[in-house]
Structure prediction request, 653 residues.
Amino acid sequence: MTALGHAALRQLALNVLTQHAGSAAGAEALAAAARRAYDDLAHVSTPLIGQVGVDALIDRAVHLAQRDYSWLVDAREPEQAHEPFAQVIVSLERQNPAIATEGAAAVFATFAGLLVTFIGEPLTTGLLRKAWPKAFSDAHTEET
Amino acid sequence: MPDRVAIRRLPTGVPGLDEILGGGLPEFSFNLIAGAPGAGKTTLAQQIMFTLSGSDRPALYITVAGEPPLKMLRYQQQFTYFDSARVSESVRYVNLSQDVVNGRLEQLLGRIVQEVEATSPRVVVVDSFRSVAQAAERAENAALDLQHFVQQLAVRLTGWEATTFLVGEYLASEVEQNPVFTVADGLLWLFQSLDRNSMVRKMQVMKMRGQAPIPGLHTFRITNDGVRVFPRVIVGPQQEKSSGTPSKKRAPPTRLSVGVKTLDKMLGGGIPAGYSVLVAGPSGSGKSVLATNFIMEGARHDEPGIIAVFEKRPSEYSQTGHGGREFEHMVHNRNVGIIHTRPLDLSIDETLHDIVTAIHALKARRVVIDSLSGFELALAPTFREDFRESLYRMVAVLTGMGITLMLTAELEDSYVDLRFSPHGTAFLTDAIIMQRYIELKGQLRRVMAVVKVRGSAHSKELRAFEINEDGIVVGEALGSYDGVLTGSPVARAKAERGRALRTTRRKTR
Prediction:
């Protein structure tokens, strides 16, 4: 990947989701794929920016993605209140898989875009490469 | 003599820091960087970390509930030493904020040790260690108190051959109470010194086990390149000896021309090499012209020179008709260097650093400070109080390097007292040239005299001089006048006739 624009990040996220869920996944499988993609991303991001940092950026990413995907409402159960990404999972499970895939990709792309804003492209690229190595590599191959 | 353990000293990559530490950072030392918020602690730690880490031995930067890492990474990237490509490779950030919030010190110690064992780092930074201490205070029934935690941390990290920095916000009053100050091998304290509306950053090495740091407060700046320290100059025996010891200067090896033949004669054959000369006079009397002559004369004879300008603009030196083009040519050819700065928050040490750097770059033998008044004004207020002492150090260091130094000082024209410097600094210099205005035959004239040349015979004459297109032209000696320094000299013959007339009148009465 050369430049981390929103379109490139969205495509990367779509690749990750497809890779984890397969091309004809149902809503639940898609939600599980999104959970896995998030866990991988949070796993590499937390040591660098802290759990609080990850939560703050996910909150913001969901808020921004709601402009285009208004169904990404906060429907978390009280016991999920401490985990911002839980609302994404709940919303994805209630959607048509195709629409859910677009919404999840938008959240991830916005999250990564926020990382670029705050810590810069080189560090964000490093995190994405580490979190989603196959999808990242595929995206790079597609470009070249 | 028994074999002693050799302590390797690591270069920190922070200009000036190795010097004040006493030769670098002791390898495997356990250090504390302390100071108030905004003092530059994190910047200093990160700069050292990026320098010391490598792909074979990475650095581990542990953030603990201090500055949020998201913001720290954002701001630290603005510095040139920060290399994004090395993050997660030779520089690894680990956030343990949650461990501090959730756990106790023994758990935190376990997490730190776990990270250290996994990466085998050369450098470990814990930022902010103050947060750890505060967590310890909150913890109840903890198996490990802060003192034991610090001791165990020091032993564990040193055991893993890591050089460690704890970064923390502390007040000077806490030194006696906090165990971390006792356990630490090195203690670097950063300050922001406020005086009126100016702020100067200062650093003190309060201790550095196993070596001798330079004592006192050292000024430092934070720029895009990070921290740069300006070590406080200590005048040692070498500088003391070469700055004003008559035995050495009784027979100076060479004399340097000031570029004005008659003045050279007045000085007894020029300025002895390695001397400091004060040129004192009122505004417009020709001090800068003489100083420029001195520098240009050196440049003509393969003795490059530096002019540190604190009052005029550098272009003014080449705008004078006399030698303007030649001066520009010398600057262009790096026979003459100009240091021009007016930040109003300088320290003497920073200025001295700039001058010494320029001296080495040009292999200069002559230096002009034009003027002391402008220099004093350019210093931060906190340093103006110690101006005389600081000037003493600067003169000693420069003349100790064998530099011949000319300082100009502006004086208010006074015809009731004879002073050579508003700073009381005349005694610091080896030679003094005085310039004044007088009224002579209905005209305003300039006069000059050589007041002293230490250890050397010199002219005592007061001589009129002019500045024209040929530069400084020294004219007649005013030996036939009395009261020249009153500003209104009287021709001696006329004065004697007057005295005789008054005597006759008294006798007649």
